[in-house]
Design a protein that fits this description.
Elements: E1 18-22, E2 28-31, E3 47-49
Antiparallel strand pairs: 1-2, 1-3
Length: 50
């Protein structure tokens, strides 16, 4: 993988994903945002960790 500052070596196993549910549209999704997440469908911030 390339970036503007050089190659990155990040393994997906090193990234922690959290499962969220949107209280507005009902979609469940995974995000890396531990403190703050936004629903990818409706862009609502009214989400909760599942």
């Amino acid at each position: 993988m390339c970036s503007p500052v050089g190659p990155l070596s990040i393994e997906l196993g090193e990234i922690t994903f959290y499962k969220y549910r949107c209280n507005d549209c009902g979609r469940e999704y995974k995000s890396t945002g531990k403190q703050h997440s936004i629903c990818p469908d409706c862009k609502s911030e009214n989400v909760e960790k599942v």
